[in-house]
Structure prediction request, 491 residues.
Amino acid sequence: MTSAPSRTHHQITFAVLTVGVAAFALLQSLVMPVLPTVEVELGTNQTNVTWVLTAYLLSASISTPIMGRLGDMYGKKRVFVIALGALAAGSLLAALASTLPVMIIARVVQGIGGGVLPLAFGIIRDEFPKAKVPGAIGLIAALISVGAGAGIVLAGPIVELLGYHWLFWIPLIITSLAGVAALVLIPESPIRTRGRINWLTAFLLSAWLVALLLAVSQAPKWGWGSPKVIGLLVAALVVVVAWIVAEARSSNPLIDMTMMRIRGVWAANLIALLMGVGMYAGLGFLPQFLQAPSSAGYGFGATVTESGLMLLPNAIAMFAVGLFSGRLASRFGSKNLLVVGSLITAGSYFMLAFLHSSEIDIYLANAISGIGFGLVFSAMSNVVVASVPQEQTGVASGMNANIRTIGGSLGAAFMASVVAVGASSSGVPVESGYTNGFAMLGAAGVLASVAALFIPTMRRDKKTHLEDTADLPHPELAMVAGGTLSGAKSE
Prediction:
């Protein structure tokens, strides 16, 4: 009885979740455009400084599903606060770092905060009225993409006005405030999953992720045919098979393989992989394209700040779409949004590939991609949440977010390899490298739209009530995954 009043104010819970997720999203991308500055400040070289990104990526990939599982077991609020604490601690260490090893350790600690996204989804599903779940999840999902875009935009002004250390002081302040607010204002989840962490499967999961992401992140430097890359890829394949077998046989799996076979889940995960390829590779390489001197035959000679502003339409469009994602899902269905959003994203990258001679082209293409990503990421999260039992929300959405990160790593590695083909003796890429690279990202969007066709749709039976397919076990969330059907009454 005493906790009832606090659970009625779901708007306050949403505000706290938004701040925490926004801080995590910013940390994903703030460092990307200013790596050359960090390289000089820490006295290292271009090869070594990439570990500032790789360490964060590896840590987040490993921690995200584990944190989601811990939240399902011990309480989503509790683990959400711990994740924010890790973000704050890592940000503090990074802000004070004066050497590369300390910065890398700081980024590993920050990566533990990757659990904020699946935990936020789980808290929303536990605390919000059913009719408001789609819109809230859509906004949080869109916020990840918006935050990544905003990080690219804000990095330049922050470094120019305050110095690169403030790339970490600002997130430290935000995460600290969000952590205190979460501790005080968010009610603890009443839903628990019995069991314990299976540390063997957690180790195997970590091992194949490390091997895979290390291979693809270093392949542009070591060479795709090098013994080290091939050895890591073979090791990743062997360990992933061992991990799947161990999870399937475990009475207490970290990732429920039965859950992963649900059509809505595996289709959404495939979309996450492909769209992760497009988003992270696009955000990572478009600033380099814009900053290239016009003497190279392309580019605009933009500064870090100017290139960030040219990406601003992407973040604005994603946020605007996120505001209406719940209504769009109810009206058209999340499956349809995924198909259309993927195709819109593909179109924006094909535009960048073949139409990039003026700044107007860049602004327009970025606005279009923002619309596509906003539709896809909000709808994809809704499908995952609607496809699994409530007690598996954290681990399912965590794995989806994790697969998006893996896709981003793959996309960045492939993009680096494609762009480098035919580079001049000075190391400056030729225009055809970027053209082929952006076309590759467009093809990934087309494949994502095909994957979206496999997501189950809702149907209405002769007795005029909604029923789901065998792969969607929650008819009360029909409006989330399939949309409100004609003649059916929604909440």
Observations:
- The radius of gyration is 22 Å.
- Strands lie at 459-460, 466-467.
